[in-house]
Automatic annotation (TrEMBL):
<dbReference type="InterPro" id="IPR054345">
    <property type="entry name" value="Tir-like"/>
</dbReference>
<dbReference type="Pfam" id="PF22550">
    <property type="entry name" value="CesT_Tir_1"/>
</dbReference>
<protein>
    <recommendedName>
        <fullName>Molecular chaperone Tir</fullName>
    </recommendedName>
</protein>
Length: 134
């Protein structure tokens, strides 16, 4: 069964730089700005591999955003746009089974994040809270 070291090896083979690592918690953070992957947290929580990337703060009045997230999720190949537990942030989340994980499946999940951001990134940001600088 693949383990934390296997996941790190897969990421290295995929040329995704590990920018942070907590070996004790079996968590790595990777980034590839060219593909939209920014601080993607990959957590080995046997029996699952959990992938999460923060997209943006949730807006103060998110009603329409919730509907759009559900519509967007219908088109995603892997993962989903979700809210964090506090309802304060929109994140991309995917879970994979560690027991059957291979490099291609991990790559497909990360590619799905990149494709989702390419397709919906601008629209998602249109729902973001206005910056205090504006």
């Amino acid at each position: 069964m693949p383990d934390f070291e296997s996941v790190k090896r897969y990421l290295t083979n995929l040329e995704l730089p590990i920018i942070e690592e907590d070996a004790a918690a079996e968590i790595v953070v990777v980034s590839d700005e060219d593909s939209g992957v920014s601080r993607l947290v990959i957590d080995c929580e046997a029996p699952l591999l959990i992938l999460e990337q923060r997209i943006m703060d949730a807006p103060a009045a998110p009603g329409e955003l919730y509907k759009r997230l559900l519509q967007m999720n219908r088109t995603l190949v892997h993962g989903a746009f979700v809210l964090d537990e506090a309802g304060q942030a929109v994140i991309f989340r995917d879970t994979l089974q560690l027991a059957t994980l291979d490099e291609l499946e991990l790559e497909s999940s990360i590619d799905a994040l990149s494709l989702a951001l390419a397709e919906y990134g601008s629209e998602l940001l249109s729902y973001a809270r206005p910056s205090a600088d504006k």
